[in-house]
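Final report, results section. Input specification for complex C-07:
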Amino acid sequence: MSTPAQPDADSVRAEARAWIQSNWDPDLSLVEWRRRLVDAGWATPSWPERWHGRDLPKWADDVVSEEIRAGGAVGLPLGTGTNLAAPTILAQGSDELRDRFLAPILTGEETWCQLFSEPGAGSDLAGLTTRAERDGDAWVINGQKVWNTSAHHADFGLLVARTDWDAPKHRGLTYFVIPMHQEGVEARPLRQMNNHASFNEVFMTDARIPHEYMVGQQGDGWRVALTTLAFERKFGSLARPQYGDAPGRALDEARAEAAAHFETYKWYPQRAGRVDLVVSRAQATGKDKDPVVRQEIARLLSMQKAAQWTADRARAARSLDRTPGPEGSIGKLANSDIARQASVVHGMISGADGMLTGADSPLDGVVAEVLISVPAQSIAGGTDQIQRNILSEKALGLPREPSFDKDKPFRDVPHNR
Amino acid sequence: MSTPAQPDADSVRAEARAWIQSNWDPDLSLVEWRRRLVDAGWATPSWPERWHGRDLPKWADDVVSEEIRAGGAVGLPLGTGTNLAAPTILAQGSDELRDRFLAPILTGEETWCQLFSEPGAGSDLAGLTTRAERDGDAWVINGQKVWNTSAHHADFGLLVARTDWDAPKHRGLTYFVIPMHQEGVEARPLRQMNNHASFNEVFMTDARIPHEYMVGQQGDGWRVALTTLAFERKFGSLARPQYGDAPGRALDEARAEAAAHFETYKWYPQRAGRVDLVVSRAQATGKDKDPVVRQEIARLLSMQKAAQWTADRARAARSLDRTPGPEGSIGKLANSDIARQASVVHGMISGADGMLTGADSPLDGVVAEVLISVPAQSIAGGTDQIQRNILSEKALGLPREPSFDKDKPFRDVPHNR
Amino acid sequence: MKFVFSEEQEELRQEVRRFLQKTSPLTEVRRLMETDEGYDPAIYRQMAQQLGLQSLAIPEEYGGAGYGWLELVVVFEEMGRGLLCAPYFSSIVLAASALLESGDDAAKRDLLPGIAAGTTRATLAHAEDNGQWDGSQIVLTAVQSDGDWQLTGHKSFVVDGATADVVLVIGRTAAGLALFAVSEGFSRTPLATMDQTRRLARLEFAATPARLIGTDGDGERILNGVRDLAAVALACEQVGGAQACLDMSVDYAKMRHQFGRPIGSFQAIKHLCADMLLEIESARSAAYAAGWAIADQDDDLPAIASLAKAYCSDAYFNAARNTIQIHGGLGFTWEHDAHLYFKRAKSSEFFFGDSSYHREQYLQRSGI
Amino acid sequence: MKFVFSEEQEELRQEVRRFLQKTSPLTEVRRLMETDEGYDPAIYRQMAQQLGLQSLAIPEEYGGAGYGWLELVVVFEEMGRGLLCAPYFSSIVLAASALLESGDDAAKRDLLPGIAAGTTRATLAHAEDNGQWDGSQIVLTAVQSDGDWQLTGHKSFVVDGATADVVLVIGRTAAGLALFAVSEGFSRTPLATMDQTRRLARLEFAATPARLIGTDGDGERILNGVRDLAAVALACEQVGGAQACLDMSVDYAKMRHQFGRPIGSFQAIKHLCADMLLEIESARSAAYAAGWAIADQDDDLPAIASLAKAYCSDAYFNAARNTIQIHGGLGFTWEHDAHLYFKRAKSSEFFFGDSSYHREQYLQRSGI
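Structure output:
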């Protein structure tokens, strides 16, 4: 294969801009517009031409996104389909799966969820016990998943299940696409201690998956799952698209789509501690005069500033194509500390009002929501304990703990179910 | 064997008092007096008659001690001989060892040290690598010990050495009495970061021990060592005998003995944080007006009060013959926290003066000594980490970590030397 | 002997624990959390009739059993462990203590027998919207005309204020502060509480007729006495709640496996639990010391009460948040019980003054 | 680009590190700790002659190399890592900065070239016995008679005060505070310091003739400017020292075996090291941000300098005490190097104001 001449960013940008100017039509339905975008290869310009792309380098995705934004147009749908399912299937799926699934993800016609974690397999994801058994041309699935955003309305799920109980834990797993709209699949919302229900539990009872919906090879599910998890880290940030208030059917639908998507995450700023509110709250209550409270505010703001600068350091290194040092990996743990300290400070500031919630309480319940959401910050996406393991091993090179379960047949390993 | 009638405390007390009144003579030399005390069986009334005791119940030791104190007389010598060597030899030694060693310990004519820890075996004492090899009627010792109080002037040492490298770690150890005054034994004082040198390193190079000086059986050294460690915990407190200033040769010698003994420990109050000085220091510097400092003082005093009350709870339970709950075992860990917090508070109070030491610094260097001694509080006698292991296993019943080295031949276990 | 509960007191502990396990397991607590009233009057009556809990520390001459505060230490520790929903703290610690402090014999004769029998639910209203627990900033005014007192103003953070039969109110008079009793003629607005197991209300008074309890001007002394007792009762509750958290964590850590091992065999979990144990046992020592200070009428009570409230608040909150952490995602769910303790811990941290307030008070009351 | 050191700056870091490893390993630091002078003049000369470190941030017109503060960030981080004993902080950050702030061209021409060449060792004396680092409580008085200034009073905690060729003194005049230079005519008493790698002295002045530097009354502004720079230099040193502690701990934890495993495979040690890493990297970010604030002449410098000093002080002390803990008994011995870092950490925590002081300053300087 000959290497085509590398296009430069300016010409890609110009070409994309011209195409958007000629083709963007806010009066289309959102799906109609995205079909047009996908068909032209501008939805995912770095993808292969055979699958909705233009074979451009990776940077082209960002350049074209900017142009779509600049042109007032709508880009890819938000969520698990775009962020996780599409890149995983593109990277690891068969051609049949790519043909079947990629386009409807990009147009938003089919939505997805992720079915990895289980009640008995959290920190130790590879210890999962959802069972997949071959039955002719299909697989029969039994088990329970948890922490599944959007599972109650998704069309398909990314599923990891155990197909071999005699293999060691990481080698007995297989990765599937599971159709969610079937009798054997039930998604139930899971209420959190802060009263939100952002996640579901998914119960699978003799649910069926066509054999062709296997992603990668049988027994190779852990490797495929790691691909998905790498994309998950990459798309971890939750920048909300800004569509302004221009009229048009596609824009209306995109605004509704974004609102629905972000509804799930509306308590996340509270989970992170709402440091932004601290100074104004202290001033409003007069607690900014209390030297003891001031110390804690200063600690909090210092931690947050330091974390921002640490992120800036990592970003600066990456922008020069240098690999960031440890500063690139401490953010998650820092955020737990910040959230905890923010909760302490909000408490000190609120005093007796901290006992209240909702409309009776400060800022219409926002502060109360901080107090009862912060505990999730140090759990979700990897507990502080797991983060410290990772940091000590990856960033400091300390030895792993000796393992007991890696080489044994999984059926001989003590596990929760 | 018939059980003799149990004597009551009042009659024991009366008999001891009468004996002391007739026999205590401050003009004797200390050794002469103690010989008299030992020969009469009043030095160790709970010991068997055959070895300097009176076969009385355990409580008799305390009762008679009280009478000795009340009579203005001198009791047993201080230190490793009395606290560790004597009870270990009485409990585990052969009759020959008891005959040879017990009396000179009780009279103070021979002094002792403990040779357990090694540079490579601290938290994991059973991983020690000092080597004992049989050579005819003797054992030849090679290795290094550390943290040995008084080793530079002791006559004998309690030694644990490895005699079998093919046995699992706990089963290849043997316990010996080693004569310290020999060519193959060298004790060097070990200077600490606070400039004191309370401990020694002891280097043994082809040092020799007569075979009869083995305590317990060959390979049974771990069990014997646990006996010693149990006595060590029991004698952990360092109450200093009060001899007043009455005249008399025995008293002069006892005062000198106590002064020499406690010289080693004179920085221990600083290691514990000198909480007693905090309020007066804060008042002297005016820092008692600073609300931020006040919070930390309050935290410190609260921790200390709580620890005292916890000790009171355990003592009250024991006084009623109840087994204390977890309150009986948290003291050591609490003391680490208290010392650390005391160091923080002393620092806040001292400000710039905290950079100084000795005569230029607050309280003639006492505060500076606190700052540079407190780090030992969370290490000596079992690190905080080991304490947390013990608490979580013993008090909470959490499972031990899986072990890798317990059942293997020691020579196959990775260790430091 | 100090720090040793008598066999009778230990037996009381077992009785209370059994009673709460039977009549008020956490499933029942969850049911009551969702009701308007917030507690089950039938259980409250049983507490009085079967166990006599309401009468324990009330003198016999006022219909009580004439025991002392050590009994209450035991009872509050168990109620904290069980997150009991009941107007017990309000009736017994706040109202009964205020009446006893007031020295108003007629009022005591009128009100204490009902409180002791569990038929009168009472509370004390002192804080106002600014959330100050001491009396210094009280605005609600009491004026006397023709010998009758009338209250005008508001009270907030009144525990069980929406359901109490009698509300004792600290109001400002020309002589300073004074204690009043009201039963009607004022409005009650339930407040939305983070901790649904303890209800608060805001009360509005507009020339509400009230009965003066004790001496006019004596309100600050009465309030200060009650605040110390309230701090100790809360500290005991907090110890009980913290212990429940630790027990829950340890049980889970023994049972839950990850990486082929119980998570309780990992030092990350073991050491967290050991630190919780240390803090809880220390807090327990402080709470018991405070209880004995009441029982022994120790002059140090105000200092020790503040010490205990600060220490136990911190220990409880740390235990509750670590319990969620040890349970991972499960611990953050509504269906798991950890959040019930977390919310109680967080709320009772603020109730009657937060830890930094009480640390400062501890020093001041110790003469430092 | 902010937060990216240039290749030249990275090369400077390597050069300084190699130089210190060669000329001032910790064995040499230990030797110098025991000497009267406390540093090796030959090494100080080499620093100037071979690396030009003293000249880095001094403008070319005064004999310097005209680089900026980012170079000093790098240099101080490495000096902190190596615990260098030398009058570099005093001469470069305190004295040279005070001269530059003073705007006194004659004084700059007289003194800066010698400082840049490493031949003049200078320092700043501002704190007095009460240990206040700002100018508010300065008592030492400067009076003018016949155009000549004389100083009377004392200064304390003067870094390298016993050996400096020139001492810049902040004194009180009728106009407020002013900066003076003295070289002789005063007594110097070395102070016994916990951290033997940085020397302090107490100076006594009795009608000591002095040269006014800059404008009378401008001393407070000059001092405030220098204090910000000093805080940043110390913060960078602290990051370097903390990193040395972490490196030492991690190396030991990989090598040391107990219970048949490297102790670095136990979560108790791993997690402690991870927390140290988090705190040190955060502190480094703060120190670098402060360095860039100087380089960019950012108005936020005073706030960021205080933030950095507080953050880096805490990070260093925690790193040093955890390093001792991880090394166990060995870490408490004189022969192990951990205590050298511990004592530097503890002392520099107090130097130029402790963490609670700087946290308060951070808020005030941020307008909060």
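The mean pLDDT of chain C is 97. Chain C has three domains: 7-120, 123-219, 221-366. This concludes the modelling results for the funded period.
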